[in-house]
Design goal:
Layout (H helix, E strand, L loop, with lengths): L1 H29 L9 H7 L4 H5 L7 H13 L1 H8 L2 H5 L4 H5 L1 H4 L8 H5 L4
């Protein structure tokens, strides 16, 4: 009887958690922000080849990272700033000054210094 009562409690709890999570994803996906309709977390996940370079300003930036950064800058420099300085980036132990130096290290000139001036990172 103990297992049935635990299941009876867990099923509604798990259902509630799934619904709350889906609601958050739906709200995030439907809102147009710095990256248009792409959620910041999704944009951040696309930059996974950049993790090493975003944690170490001396690290060589992989070509795959430069490609992803260039694509994100195409969305808008503010998108890149929002992604590199997002809570997801903080959770991943990204060093903001190292992260925002990636476009320059990739020789991508379109980015300018939008993040540096916007976030007072000189």
């Amino acid at each position: 009887m103990g297992n049935n009562s635990q299941i009876a409690i867990l099923v509604p709890f798990c259902t509630l958690m799934v619904l709350a999570t889906l609601n958050g994803f739906t709200r995030e996906a439907s809102a147009a922000g710095e990256c248009g309709r792409t959620p910041i977390r999704s944009a951040f996940a696309s930059l996974s080849p950049c993790l090493g370079a975003a944690r170490d300003p001396q690290a060589k930036v992989p070509p795959a990272c430069c490609t992803k950064v260039s694509m994100l800058i195409g969305t808008g420099p503010h998108c890149l700033c929002a992604v590199l300085l997002s809570p997801a980036a903080k959770e991943a132990r990204i060093i903001p000054a190292a992260a925002i130096s990636i476009p320059k290290r990739c020789n991508i000139r379109k980015a300018g210094s939008a993040c540096r001036s916007e976030y007072n990172l000189l």
